[in-house]
Amino acid sequence: PITPEALEAYKKLNVSEVFISIDEAMESMVKQAREEGFKVYACIWAFKALSEAYGVENIYGERKLWMGAGCPNNPILREHCLNRIKKALLSLGVDGVVLDGIRFPSPGSGLSTFLTCFCKHCQEKAEELNCNLAEIKHFLMKLKDSTLFIKASLTYPESLNPLSEWLRFRCYSITEMVKKVKLHLKDVNSEAKLGAAVFTPTLAPLVGQDYTSLASYLDFIQPMIYHKGDGIACINFELAKLVEEYSKSKLEEKRFLMEIYRETGFNGSLNNLIEKGLPIKIVSLEAVKGRKLVGGLKFTPIIFILNEDKVGIEKLKAEALKAELDGLVYFMYFKGLN
Ligand SMILES: [Zn+2]
User: Fold this and answer.
1) Would you call 212 helix, strand, or coil by DSSP?
2) Distance 61 CA to ligand 1 centre (A)
3) 115 alpha carbon to ligand 1 midpoint, in Å?
4) C-alpha 63 – ligand 1 centre gap (Å)
5) Ligand 1 centre from 121 Cα, in Å?
6) What kind and span of H or E run contains 94?
7) How many Å lie between the centroid of ligand 1 and the Cα of residue 20?
8) Could you tell me the sign of the dihedral formed by the alpha carbons of 1, 198, 319, 281, in that order?
């Protein structure tokens, strides 16, 4: 937020940039923060939608909204996003915008929402890419082994099966939108900067975020590297949801957890994964991985500091700083932070 108390805390903590939701931002706040030397960015929930008519269509033909968002290929939602960016730049006077939710739904939203989207706009987009969406849908309907998702994500953009094709389709759709946003943003204000808050590298291809191709259009990238937590985007939560929804037996559950162990060093039960999260070293491993994918792009991961005490925050910070960063974003301000 931008309040006199928060601005004081930011100064004490050497914070130089403030990210605020476009729905909460007011011109006077932005002006005040900028006068005090901060850069201010408006965060925009990219595919915000109010009606299920704009939702994603799943493998069973049902339409759904995910976290108040709809289909990334819906032209009305895309237009709405561009208009809100224009509004943020012209009437709020921010230094730039950060795209949030610039993706397809994740495993954390549940399989019936994750295994999307097959709407007519997505079908048109798939044709542009020579991608057989009907075959993908068929494959996803029959799929029983959730470890394949992790494999496809880790080996992206290598093509292994229709699952990799699905990720390619998702990534193409999102990168195309980011490119559109970039052109639009520069049209409105050539000085304005474009950033995106994205999923952590290991999970990003699953939601349509290809760091390397996004890097061509972004001025900065903010990977959300949350090793523990019980919400969307937290790595442990997203993986746990995949295990939960696909495991029909304890044996399957164990096999999936072994797969996670190989990648992350996590060694424990499904309950532990949800409650305690992944080992903290995953924060530096993911940050190093992300940096490699984006080259010289301004790279500023987000760490989750709510629910952490001073020692916890310092540990997280030290872990993230093992990678080559251009800065670190704290999610988020709370009373008493300074
Ligand atoms: Zn769609």
Assistant:
1) helix
2) 11
3) 11
4) 9
5) 5
6) none
7) 28
8) positive
Average confidence (pLDDT) per 10 residues, the chain, 338 residues: 92 95 93 97 97 97 97 98 95 96 97 97 96 96 90 90 96 98 97 98 97 98 96 95 88 86 82 92 96 98 92 96 97 83
- φ, ψ for residue 194, nearest 5 deg: -115, 125
Strands 329-331 and 302-304: parallel
- Domains delineated in the chain: 4-331 (3.20.20.80)
The amino acid at 229: G
Ligand 1 mean position, distance from CA 297 (Å): 30
| Ligand 1 centroid – CA 120 distance (Å) | 6
Q: How far is the CA of 172 from the centre of ligand 1 (A)?
A: 13
Cα 338 to Cα 9, 48, 308: the distances in Å are 5, 33, 13
pLDDT number for residue 259:
83
Q: What sign has the CA pseudo-torsion 235, 236, 239, 241?
A: negative
Can you give the pLDDT at residue 277? 92
Distance (Å) from CA 55 to ligand 1 centroid: 7
The CA–CA distances, whole Å, from 145 to 138, 196, 237, 242 equal: 14, 31, 18, 10
ipTM, 2 dp: 1.00
How remote is the CA of residue 74 from the centroid of ligand 1, in Å? Answer: 6
Distance CA 106, CA 72 (A): 13
What is the pLDDT at residue 58? 98
